[in-house]
Amino acid sequence: MKNCFLTSHASTLNVKSMAVPSFRLSCTDIVKAKIIARIRPDLERIEREIEGHLSSSVPLISVVARHIMGSGGKRLRPLLMVLAARLCRYNGGQDAALSVVFEFLHAATLLHDDVVDNAEVRRSKPASNTIWGNPAAVLVGDFLYSKAVLLTVAHSNIRILEVFSKTTTLMAEGEVLQLVHSDNLEIDEKEYFEVITRKTAVLISAACQIGAILGNAGDSEEAALRDYGHHLGIAFQLVDDTLDYTGDVKELGKPVGNDFKEGKVTLPLIFAMTTSDDGVRERLRRAFNADEISAEFFGEVRDLVVRSGAIDHTLATADGHIRQAKEVLSIFPPSPTKELLTDIADFVLCRRM
Amino acid sequence: MKNCFLTSHASTLNVKSMAVPSFRLSCTDIVKAKIIARIRPDLERIEREIEGHLSSSVPLISVVARHIMGSGGKRLRPLLMVLAARLCRYNGGQDAALSVVFEFLHAATLLHDDVVDNAEVRRSKPASNTIWGNPAAVLVGDFLYSKAVLLTVAHSNIRILEVFSKTTTLMAEGEVLQLVHSDNLEIDEKEYFEVITRKTAVLISAACQIGAILGNAGDSEEAALRDYGHHLGIAFQLVDDTLDYTGDVKELGKPVGNDFKEGKVTLPLIFAMTTSDDGVRERLRRAFNADEISAEFFGEVRDLVVRSGAIDHTLATADGHIRQAKEVLSIFPPSPTKELLTDIADFVLCRRM
To answer: Which residues, in sequence order, are bridge partners of residue A125?
Structure first.
């Protein structure tokens, strides 16, 4: 996987075009296929659990919930919880039931994010708010969040509830923080990492930590899985932020340049702004402050960001976090589950969607 | 208090104008003064607890939270929880800390309601969404809800968490149900009661029930307080729905006719539609479906609704629920707290804001 990253990195530097580097494609496909074969049984259990909770006495809830939680989700968070529990020798039957809490929470944030961002497309489908309106997206988001609380409480484990509730509070603060920073081209790396920690990493970290708690892990095992999730989450978001500049619209399921157009300043842009000369910075600033930005205009922005080395810098930072994610797992003895968690970490770095 | 209701009832019938009946005014003022003197120490403890949780590392959260939770709130839900606990002989020091959960939850729903309804005014102040925009209102609402979960978890009581999480899920479903029914003049009484049970009564009922659980009440005491809260909540909403037709804009802190203009069909309108002749129904239908409705046009609607006896019918229904609320308290021996809960029930029927 190191090769995968390095080659992707080198090809981005060389081609200076925005085509997805071909090695990255094939590398991702191989790793993906290898992972999917092993996670299929867990994914099937998770899907069944999700489906079992999607009906409601209010039909609109079921329809919107199915739209946002239906096909296209990676189920990364529930899967990580299930695997974390297994790594800690959990052999009960409650893991899948608890794991879906993280998908419900995630879906709730997506619905509210779409309202906040006035999103038009999500996973190649019209965003829920464009079909059913903002009120339905806000209220069904509230329902999914409530359902997540209800499903967590059903496990009667105060430690799990403590981690869960601290996580959702940090996430909500992170969402407001991101809103405050939107349209602010002066945000620095520290503020950016604060936002992505709260909006992405804490939930993935909590999924892993709660898996450990379910598995009755010792303190050091629980801390290791919490940290694994944190580093994986940071890397996941960093890669996501590069894909907004270099991704393929079909694979992403949403247009590239979305973050830039929505005034979200991510690490690639921060790096380009702090390392480029005055002329480039001024062009980026003008594009960022423009009321409308055409595909061609964004193409120019993308070129400037890539030429600054920002994508390489961001992926190298993500690579550092993936290394740390794998490193913290060293306290666990070798096992198929540990190997799978390691492969998932590698995949996060090479993913294209 | 029966007199208060009856006199108000009679004067509404007689005057056929929309002036607030004078007896109702004085009756309310006397009852209010009597109640306020007794609840002041509890309200002060509740206010201190709320204030202690309003600061956040993200300043926008504190500003919006203070706006929605600042002056003007009745603190009815926290107060009922504290009193319910005391009625069940609770003498610990955690009641105020737990009670604020209900104010945080309530504030979260108000923020999201304002987004859903495109509200302009709330408690005589501009609604949060009009000052800080829909994104901030949605996300700070999410924060307040998360905070409510966090504060409830801190009490480490699974029974309380079960009631809490069932309640919030029912509430969220109720909000969607109300959205589905909006602009639907054909909604019947059964559907209306389903909506108001979920959107208003379940939270007030949960506050009372959780107070009982905190006080280690027996099953019958817990059930009695849950039912007291339910009937009080239904009556509270019924009175609220009459105030949208007959209230005073200054006392209400929001314009009258709000529900009607927002396409919310409440019991007064349902009653008027089902009991009036075809001509009146057609005039009401035309007003309801109009794109814009002037103050004068709403005045006509109000006259038609009042003349149909709908306000009397709705207040009589509320009176029935207040009687039941007081009746279920009969299992408790006489005490100052029981008397206060009885007076609060009477006040709900006579309130003007």
So the answer is: A122
Q: Which residues of B131-149 are buried (b: 16+ CB within 10 A; e: fewer)?
A: ebebbbbbbbbbbbbbbbb
pTM reported for the whole predicted model: 0.89
ipTM of the complex: 0.88
Nearest residue, CB atoms, B161 vs list A135, A153, A179: A153
Render each residue's pLDDT in chain B as its tens digit; 353 residues.
333 332 333 333 332 333 333 334 456 677 788 899 999 999 999 999 999 998 888 999 999 999 999 856 789 999 999 999 999 999 999 999 999 999 999 999 999 999 988 878 777 788 888 889 899 999 999 999 999 999 999 999 999 999 999 999 999 999 999 999 988 998 999 999 999 999 899 999 999 999 999 999 999 999 999 999 999 999 999 999 999 998 776 666 666 788 888 888 999 999 999 999 999 999 999 999 988 888 888 889 999 999 999 999 999 999 999 999 999 999 999 999 999 999 999 999 987 65
Residue contact B143–A180, C-beta within 8 A: no
Searching chain A, which residue's CA lies closest to the CA of residue B139? A176
Read off the DSSP letter of residue A309: T
Would you state the CATH architecture of domain B2-9+19-350? Orthogonal Bundle (1.10)
Q: Which CATH number fits domain A21-350: 3.40.30.10, 3.90.1150.10, 3.90.550.10, 1.10.600.10?
A: 1.10.600.10
The sign of the torsion formed by the CA atoms of B125, B131, B137, B141 equals: negative
Residues of A with CB under 8 A from a CB of B: 56-61, 112, 115-116, 134-136, 138-140, 142-143, 145-147, 149-150, 152-153, 156, 158, 161-162, 164-166, 168-169, 171-173, 175-177, 179-180
Structure tokens at B313: 């019918």
